[in-house]
Amino acid sequence: MTDQSAVLQDVRQGMIPAHIYNDKEIFDLEKERLFSRSWLFVAHESEVPEAGDYVVRRVLEDSFIISRDEKGEIRAMFNMCLHRGMQVCRAEMGNASHFRCPYHGWSYRNDGRIVGLPFHQEAFGGEEGFRKKGQTLLPAPSLGIYNGLIFISLDPDAQPLEDFLGDFKFYLDYYTKQSADGIELRGPQRWRIKANWKIGAENFAGDMYHTPQTHTSVVEIGLFREPKAEKRKDGTTYWAGNGGGTTYKLPEGGLEDRLRYVGYPDEMIERMKGQWSQQQLDVIGKDGFMISAASLFPNMSFVHNWPRVEEGSDEVLPFISIRQWQPISENETEVLSWFAVDKNASEEYKALSYKAYLMCFGSGGMFEQDDVENWVSLTNTAAGSMARRLLLNGRMGLLENGENVVEPLTPEQYSGPGSTRVGYSEYNQRELLLRWADHLERPARAAAQLHVGVDSVSAAPAACATETAPDAAAAVPAMTSQEA
Amino acid sequence: MTATPVNGMTLSEQSVLGAHAPRTQRTGQSLPFNDELHLQAHRWLVDEAYLLDAQDYDEWLARVADDVHYLMPVRVTTALGAGYSTSPGMAHLDENKYSLSRRVARFATEHAWTEDPPSRLRHYVTNVRTFRTEKADEIVAESAVLLFRSRGDVGEAATVSAGREDLLRRTGTGWELARRTIMLDESVIRMQNLAIFL
Ligand code: FES
Ligand SMILES: [Fe+2]
Asked: How far does the CA of residue B72 sit from the closest CA of chain A (Å)?
């Protein structure tokens, strides 16, 4: 693999080598050093409300069963049979007390424990040959939950999820904790786009600058109350913890007026007031900003917007969408897009909010359609040899000498945490890419290997991936000789 | 077929936004291919396919009933016997006449970049079966549709395969689409968006 340090150095200057958006080597590095380590969103608790409910989600090629076991615990289990590696669950959602492997019939309880192993005595000599007791499908190395959002990491030593989220939790609550019971998720819609996964994450993190151009059409057909798409530049971008996003500037008025302005009914506003901290309420009521799109590093995004949903009415209605940019390759991404709504909202509100979502975002959303057209085109062009010469200027908001075009907001102007500015800039896209660069330059550690059913073979110690990891095959003769 | 009623309910009735959908359901066996009603329905579907290929959406919208419910559920892979294969409470498209009209209006704005330059489209419509309903002026038509969509000169073309169940209603001026359920044959759409109609 070629030395990428020059690429990472350019990225840190805000000058982005165009080929990082379609480069096999870069993608291999991302797999090895980023997706093997970071916290990644997989599901929300509301997708598995009852004991036995499960969904199957991927981290790149790795399939995981996210289930709620009989005790109500959330589990994330690697979807591969301990025997010969068959996928034990081939549906993408459902309810099951057990997963039975179709190959030779080993069966696992929905908490992962092996409960059935055909001919255990005859084939393995019972517990002496294969220790079945205590064996489970491999759990995800790390699992963390915040506001019902389930994250896993392939790194067993991942920092605690809450530390990783940091101050971004402040902003997550606006999307996922509008009342004591949090949100419920529907979906996801899933579709594949021929675009690099980073582009969507960057766009949602802070690209207010594209709105007036890319999204003219939805303004022209009267989907939004604001007559001009330029309205965006009066909002802020903020970066906090490992995530950042954008806000809209709201018209004059108090907290209630402003929440009503984006379409929240009074009963929901009352619950928000009981739920959010004074600081969280002040961002809206005192400072006059409403959260809009955001991204959490590396590949999770959020949207909050409020279109008109009914004919001949001036009323708008807000919707929330959570999405994931699941990398397929350097030039293809599976988009998973969920509709999220406050669990305690009325059925009528939920239906209208869902309609607002369908019209704007997701596989059929009129907003989103025009975004992807750009991203596909960009990705295509990034594969060529000219793209290797071009450093894209991602320095918006910075003067050549590194000084700010616009100074950050002071605590008097803005109550939320993080670094916040009004107007167009690419601070947030740079923040995402800085974290990306940090991961890419840190060599991955080889994960410990896990040996199933035998005590005598100890797990291989963690080693640096730059050296050849101890060969997995080395363990096999030991096991064979022991059995013989 | 794909849009078989579950618990006596059409998928339209089960959808979040399908409360207004016409409830009419098929009765009896499929009509013979030389039945006059079948011929009219088949002709309607083929004419519609040409309109959609030509992206003549105003003309298309004129053939859509005011109370239309246009539904494309999200398909999911579930175990045999699970009893469902669509994502509960979620669809790709769950439209009424107003939301369809906004989509059509957007194409006319000159800023709908995802269709400028326009896609080259071909709707292949086949396996048409028709059924009478309890109403003399409404029939149910099933069809298989394959959409070929090609954009630009670089990327690969996309295809989408689906089964449809339509409710067609006779009016003073001809037939119109009163209900459509589109059952995709993929759970992950391999196309950059749904800025098209099936
Ligand atoms: S591979 Fe699962 S039982 Fe053999
Ligand atoms: Fe956009």
From this structure: 10
